[in-house]
Every structure is written in C-alpha cells, then in structure tokens.
Design goal:
mainly alpha; 0% strand
C-alpha cells in the first residue's frame, strides 16, 4: 500500500513538528506548572488546594505571576526536542538490534522511553533550576539571567546542576510510562478509518500516557522541586540531597500524600498536554507531508 511505502520525513521536519508541539503545550498549560511548583515547595500540610493556590497567586501577585519563569522552558524546547528525538532514535535502534526484533514492541517502547528520558534529563537540569527559582513565591530574582549569575557566583557552575539525580529519575519514569502506554493504548483502540479518527486516537493514547507517566513520576518531581528551590548554606548539609532518601524523609515527616503534592495541576497539564503534543505533532507532520509531496505522502 502507498501509505506503508511512503518515505520517512527528514529529521528537520520531525524536529520542527516536535518543537512546535512543545511550545504549543507550554503556552497553553504553563500556569498549571507554576501552581504545581508552589504546592510542592510548601512543606507540612498544604494550606491551599490547586484552586486555592491559583486564586491566591492571582489575588496577591497578579495574573502575570502565573507566567513567571516562562522563558527557560521556551528556550529549552528546541534543544530538548533535538535530544529527545536523537535519543529515541538511538536507543530504539540499539534495543531493536540487541533484541533481534524487527519492529517495536510494548516492552521495547518502555525501555526506549526510559533511556531517552534519562538522556534528556542531562540537558534540562539548568533550565529547570532557573524556572523553579523564578516560580518560588519568595523569589527576588530579576529574571533568568540574574538567577544564573547569582547561582554561579555563590555555588559555581555545578550549582546549576542541583537536582540532577532527581531530574534523571523524574524523566526516566515519566518517559517509560508515557511511551509504554501510548503503544498499548494505540494497539487496543479500533483502527482509525479517517485522518480525524487518527487524530482522536493520538489524543486519547497521549492523554492516557501522560496520566500514567505523571502518576509514576510525581514523587520524584516533588523531591526535585524541594532540592532546586532550596538555598544552599555553606557548611550545612541540605535536608533534601539524594532522591530516594529524600522520598523517605518526606514520607516520614509529612505522610504519603506529600509525595503527590501538586499532582492535580500536574496531571491536568500533562495528561491533556500529552494528548496535545501527539495531536500537534501528527497534524504538523501531515502538513509537512502535503507540502513536500511524493514520496512523503
């Protein structure tokens, strides 16, 4: 069939589609990320839920505060997408070769996703740290450059990589859950007969994948926020340092629910956000195929 024989799109088209999708998702759902961070940085019993935190930010700090720290994730989107696509391609081919399989299976999708997420984490840490510092309610930084300047001045260049290990585990578990799920859900759904049906299938599978990935990685995201949001004091060992001991500390001091602080805004962003990502990627790739014509159609 012509559809099966069509030539794969060049890397630049896949990269552009991923970048467009990523920026679309950030601009749509970013305020939920600010709410999530505020909830995660709050120790002890949370004073506000998601709606209470959102209304408090708007009432006390203004609507603009919901977009504070937006620049780092926007700047990160292009290099993150490049690394994600390259890592997915590299690990996918590597595991296919090692396993002897001719095409992707659910198990290979999971291990490929985990490996690509772990690789991606090395790129995102400094951007995430700057974003968390700006999102914090007590933040007095003038902007992203000011955060970088002050962190490097006080802690050296490696200070920008605080929370590296927690970020590694956050991306490892989210990508594994996300890519494993979309493979399974797509296989379970009825075959789409129209382009609209295919877009719907992509949205549903992406949303389910986003939800499962969020369930798996939220505890690691809480730890990452705590590590990156804290100010280091010379000579004092940070309360939250390594990921798994920090999980135990939070569980012991604040209870299991604390490991899921910010879950509601996070899942409201990443579940439909995962659907939006797939939706925009597939739509954009379709536009590129039509623009380039045969043999890509």
């Amino acid at each position: 069939m012509a559809t099966e024989q069509r030539k794969p799109l060049p890397f630049v088209a896949n990269f552009a589609a991923g970048a467009i999708a990523g920026v679309s998702e950030i601009l749509t759902f970013y305020p939920l990320d600010v709410v999530k961070t505020r909830m995660q940085l709050e120790t002890g019993k949370g004073k506000h839920g998601m709606v209470g935190t959102l209304t408090a930010i708007v009432r006390e700090e203004g609507v603009g505060r919901l977009y504070r720290g937006l620049v780092p994730p926007l700047l990160l989107e292009a290099p993150k997408r490049a690394v994600k696509f390259a890592a997915n391609d590299f690990w996918g081919k590597t595991y296919l070769k090692l396993s002897g399989e001719s095409k992707m299976t659910s198990q290979l999708s999971i291990i490929t996703g985990c490996s690509a997420g772990a690789t991606e984490s090395f790129v995102v840490v400094p951007f995430e740290l700057v974003k968390i510092k700006l999102q914090d309610k007590s933040s007095t930084f003038a902007g992203p450059i000011d955060v970088v300047r002050q962190v490097v001045k006080k802690e050296g260049i490696l200070g920008l990589y605080a929370g590296m290990e927690a970020t590694f585990w956050r991306h490892f578990w989210w990508n594994g859950g996300y890519f494993g799920c979309i493979h399974q859900v797509r296989a379970m759904m009825p075959k789409a007969e129209t382009p609209q049906g295919q877009l719907f299938n992509n949205f549903v599978s992406g949303s389910v994948g986003g939800f499962v990935g969020t369930v798996l990685n939220t505890p690691f995201d809480v730890v990452k926020s705590r590590i990156q949001g804290a100010s280091k004091v010379p000579g004092v060992v940070p309360k939250y340092n390594w990921t798994y001991p920090a999980l135990v500390t939070i569980f012991r001091e604040e209870g299991p629910a604390a490991l899921y602080k910010g879950f509601a805004p996070k899942v409201l962003r990443l579940a439909p956000g995962g659907g939006v990502l797939l939706l925009v990627v597939e739509f954009t790739l379709g536009v590129f195929r039509k623009a380039l014509g045969p043999p890509y159609i």
